[in-house]
Amino acid sequence: MKKVFVTGATGLLGTNTIIKLLQYDYYVTALVRKKSSWMGEENENLRLIEGDLFSDISEHLHGVDAVIHIAAETSQALLHYKDYKKTNYDAVVHLFAQTVSARAGKFLFVSTANTLGYGNPVALGNEKAPQLYPFTCSYYAQSKLETENYLLRQNRETKVMIVNPTFMIGAYDHKPSSGKIIFWAWKKKFVFYPKGGKNFVHAEDVAEGIIKAIENGKNGEKYLLANENLTYKEFFRKVNTITKQAPVMIPIPNSGLVVLGIIGDVLRKLKIKTSLSSPNMKALRINNYYSNRKSSEDLEVRYQTVDKAVKDAIHFFERKNMNLKQVERKIN
After folding, report:
1. Model-level pTM greater than 0.90?
2. Phi/psi at 36 (nearest 5 deg)?
3. Distance CA 275, CA 78 (A)
4. Domains of the chain from N-terminus onward
5. Which residue in 35, 179, 237, 316 has a CA-CA distance of 20 to 30 Å to 310?
6. Is the dihedral of CA 166, 172, 173, 175 positive or negative?
7. Hey, which bits of the chain come out as E strands?
8. What span, in angstroms and rounded, lies between the C-alpha atoms of 310 and 14?
9. Residue 324: pLDDT band by 50, 70, 90 thresholds?
10. CA 332 to CA 329: how far, in whole Å?
11. CA-CA distance, 116 to 282, in Å (whole number)?
12. Nearest 5 degrees, angle CA 169-CA 173-CA 175?
């Protein structure tokens, strides 16, 4: 039985990944802040250990075939690069050093598609495309790219694979994180949407891609885990169709997003945390599109539809009796 160590175990992707690892008969040791935060079922092949990303976990890495590092600081509201670097770079360096010392064979780093250049419907972004604005001005994306570059320089003793997921939707998004986008359209009479678009992928498929990268990925390679390129309007229409709603769809003028970005820039200079910023508002105005050709061909990942991802997310929210007010309280 193969053994793996996983961080970020209680988030959307971490939960989906551990559930799938157990289905594939892996023995999983997972790092959590509190054992009570684990949302999946108990399993004799799952061991939860409490700690943080700077804990000494070396005793748990001996005999491990691979370390899967998912945990990250993903907030878009933090004001300084150092706020991201601590979790997204320093903690990874700490964990990777312990992985090498324990002689684990592989280290898989979950990054983001935004370290790679996006494309458009005619020419999609891929693993070789260099990072582009506005993500070159995103502290989150910058911290991920710095970590990618570090790991790819250190992959001699321990093999390094990097996966670059796009925007994930699915079950077990208990915060919620990316699933907040569903609440923009769900149970609304009016839906305001930006004119850009992005690539959406089922969180289950990203979990599948992680496992296939561990099993079949090549040392020093990056793999985009991506699926459907959709405008925001197309995505919200899917949510409306699935939830059997017919709200009024209203486009947000690009000029309005520019103004919001400027307002956010001013607030940030006043040391007020906000996700509003010129780069973030620019991201809503572009077609942030990617190709999954490499992961489909090299890893043989088979992607489910975004409709399925949305349905699974909504069913999860309904089971947990989550509503818009609860989401707003979590966000605030």
Report:
1. yes
2. -65, -15
3. 8
4. 3-251+265-331 (3.40.50.720)
5. 35
6. negative
7. 3-6, 27-32, 46-50, 66-69, 106-110, 159-165, 167-169, 190-193, 197-202, 221-225, 228-231, 248-251, 287-288
8. 18
9. very low
10. 5
11. 16
12. 130
C-alpha span between 69 and 205 (Å, rounded): 17
Instruction: Give the model confidence (pLDDT) of 226-255 as tens digits.
Output: 999 999 999 999 999 999 999 999 999 999
Residue type, 26: Y
The answer to whether residues 197 and 231 touch, using CB atoms and an 8 Å cutoff, is yes
Q: Could you tell me whether strands 159-165 and 248-251 are parallel, antiparallel, or unpaired per DSSP bridges? A: unpaired
For residue 97, report the phi and psi dihedrals to the nearest 5 degrees. -60, -40
Per DSSP, the residues of 259-295 read HHHHHHHHHHHTT---S--HHHHHHTTSEEBB--HHH
Cβ-contact 223, 209 below 8 angstroms: yes
> E strands along 181-258, which residues?
190-193, 197-202, 221-225, 228-231, 248-251
Exposure string over 74-105, b if 16+ CB within 10 A, otherwise e: eebebbeeebbbebbbbbbeebbebbbebebe
**Alpha carbon 211 to chain centroid, angstroms:** 15
CA 198/CA 56 separation, integer angstroms: 38
The residues, ordered by sequence, that sit 6+ positions from 70 with a Cβ below 8 Å of its Cβ are: 6, 7, 8, 9, 11, 13, 14, 17, 110
d(CA 64, CA 29): 9
Enter the tokens of residue 221: 């390679």
The pLDDT tens digits of the residues spanning 26-64 come to: 999 999 999 988 988 889 999 999 999 999 999 999 999
Omega before residue 251 within 30° of 0, cis: no
